[in-house]
Amino acid sequence: MKLQALIFDVDGTLADTEGDGHRLAFNAAFAEAGLVWHWDPALYGELLAVTGGKERIRFFCARHAPEFLQQTDVAARIKELHAAKTRHYVALCAQGIPLRPGVEQLLREARAAGLRLAIATTTTAENIDALLAPDLRALFETVGAGDTVPNKKPAPDIYLWALAQLALPAAACLALEDSANGLKSAFAAGLATVITPTDYTRDHDFSGALARLPNLGGVTVPLLRHWHGLAYDSDKKW
Ligand code: XBP
Ligand code: MG
Question: What gap in Å lies between CA 36 and CA 113, rounded to an integer?
Answer without folding.
Answer: 51
